[in-house]
Design goal:
alpha/beta; six-stranded parallel sheet; Rossmann fold; globular
Length: about 550
């Protein structure tokens, strides 16, 4: 049967199990929009391609299936690059379709022309341009395979508009069939042998491809072998933070005692993580050029093994597959009970709120959320000083309740929250955002209204880019440039979109504000008016300035 390229594409998405797509429409892919209409795939229409890309990335992070994005040529594609960078650094599967100029106009700097292979090449796992309508199914099948194989990540397919509107008779290609990965006896034996020679082991977990089952298996393995478990940056949902063997996160603003413990370990069992610069404090806690602990590195991409660290051994396997095997083993605690107990005690002390100045205190806000939100509530964030309060004081209880960019992208939290609420409409979804972070993507409020995503946004409003200002005061004390912010009336802005909101100026007002927010039948903004001096480090800006002056 003859079908135009847009219908071939949409039919292929149905076979791949795509539940929804995210887009900002463009005339370059009208045929694809027509195909989606016939296929019945919901199209979440967004307001800017960067926010749309972050929604698609969040979908991939939540489900393990590729988030699907449609953007138009030129500025549409370049706007989306921020979300693709998140997907690449966070190892999130994603398939992006980009409208392209007609094939006959290429290489003439035609209207909105971009060479996508050159532009996206360093940013994604694979990028291609489909020149023949007859090969659309082939390219799409390959795109989904690449996005989900090995270390997951984003792929880009450029679609010339004349190719997409042309018709062809072509067979569909079914979704790939994969056997579940499984650890061999030799691989399991290598882990057990290493543990038998250790006295100060530390399990470090991260990466994607996790699940609720993997989180349960991790807890069982840690308990059975009495092992301390640290997570990498913004992977705190990989293990119930209340578990006696969870010892904290190796990320920005990490507990110094946990960082020291990583440096003191004689065995690091790295499961799923790349063990990069953030987890190792800029390769100072562990240095790949110097002698260090034995590292057993379990990672799904064989090319990652040995790229930075010398693994002993390196095991090319998704971490959840290894944990499935390890959790089945009879428990065998080693001679490190005191080491594990001390690591947990350090975490408990670190996560006890430390008072900051001001009438509204972020440490108490986060402590309230941790104590009162349901275990299944999803919490999202972007980047900024406010996020360090969340990392330190919130205890994530279940897998899939943390959505945050390991790439450190500002503006991520709000689009991610919208995506999460669309996927889980029955669960509370709370976005934490700084005033600078929220302003990058708050235009997606109309997307939330249009599609019924009734999220709660808590804005840490201190009138500045807090983290940058902190570093500025330390490095160039008293010389403020480019870090102050003018803010709108956030509740009034939410009401203009059809949502609602409230300003909180005293800590005592926060619980009632959250009760209103969680009961609202529309997007709701809680605007926290914070003391500009307060920092997640426990210091104030004045103290940071004084440290800079004394340097």
């Amino acid at each position: 049967m003859q079908r135009h390229g847009g219908r071939i594409l949409a039919d292929q998405l149905v076979l791949q199990g795509v539940k929804r797509v995210f887009s900002v429409p463009g005339e370059s892919f009208l045929a694809a929009l027509d195909g989606l209409y016939d296929a019945g795939i919901p199209n979440i229409v967004c307001r800017q391609e960067g926010g749309a890309a972050m929604m698609a990335e969040a979908y991939g992070k939540m489900t393990g299936a590729p988030g699907v994005l449609f953007v138009t040529r030129g500025p549409g594609a370049t706007n989306a690059a921020s979300g693709l960078h998140v997907a690449r650094q966070d190892s999130t599967p994603m398939v992006v379709f980009v409208g392209q100029i007609a094939r006959g106009d290429r290489d003439r700097e035609a209207f909105q022309e971009v060479n996508y292979r050159s532009f996206f090449g360093p940013l994604v796992k694979w990028v291609a341009e489909v020149d023949q309508t007859e090969r659309l199914a082939e390219y799409i099948s390959h795109a989904f395979h690449v996005a989900t194989s090995g270390r997951p990540g984003p792929v880009v397919l450029a679609l010339p508009e004349d190719m997409l509107s042309a018709s062809a008779e072509v067979a569909d290609i079914a979704a790939p069939v994969r056997l579940p990965a499984a650890a061999s006896e030799h691989q399991i034996g290598a882990v057990l042998s290493a543990l038998s020679h250790a006295s100060r082991p530390l399990v470090v977990v991260g990466g994607s491809q996790w699940s609720a089952g993997a989180a349960t298996h991790l807890a069982s393995f840690a308990e059975g072998f009495d092992l301390p478990v640290a997570v990498t940056f913004r992977r705190q949902g990989h293990m119930d933070n209340r578990h006696s063997h969870y010892v904290g996160d190796l990320g920005v603003g990490m507990n110094p005692k946990l960082g020291a413990r990583l440096a003191q370990a004689d065995l690091v069992l790295a499961l799923g993580t790349r063990l990069g610069d953030t987890a190792t404090n800029g390769f100072t806690l562990l240095d790949p050029t110097r002698p260090g602990p034995r590292i057993i590195h379990v990672h799904p991409d064989p090319d990652e093994l040995g790229r930075i660290w010398r693994p002993d051994p390196g095991i090319a396997l998704p971490a959840p597959a290894m944990l499935t095997a390890l959790a089945r083993l009879p428990g065998h605690p080693g001679p490190w009970a005191e080491w594990t107990a001390a690591a947990r005690a350090d975490y408990d002390a670190w996560s006890s709120p430390k008072e900051t100045p001001g009438a509204v205190k972020m440490e108490q806000v986060i402590a309230w959320l941790s104590a009162h939100l349901p275990d299944e509530a999803i919490v999202t964030n972007g980047a900024g000083n406010y996020a360090a309060f969340l990392h330190r004081y919130f205890r994530f209880k279940r897998y899939g309740t943390q959505l945050a960019p390991t790439s450190g992208s500002m503006g991520y939290g709000f689009p991610a929250a919208i995506s999460a609420k669309l996927e889980h409409p029955d669960r509370p979804v709370i976005c934490l955002a700084g005033d600078g972070c929220f302003q990058m993507t708050l235009n997606e409020m109309s997307t939330a209204m249009q599609h019924g995503a009734n999220v709660v946004v808590i804005v840490a409003n201190n009138g500045r880019y807090g983290t940058i200002r902190m570093h500025q005061e330390r490095t160039y004390p008293g010389r403020v440039s480019g870090t102050d912010l003018a803010n709108p009336d956030y509740p009034a802005l939410a009401r203009a979109y059809g949502g609602d909101g409230v300003v909180v100026t005293e800590q005592s007002e926060f619980p009632a504000a959250m009760d209103r927010a969680l009961a609202a039948d529309r997007p709701f903004v809680v605007d926290l008016r914070l003391d500009p001096e307060a920092l997640a480090t426990g210091f104030t800006l004045s103290q940071a300035r004084a440290m800079g002056e004394g340097a």
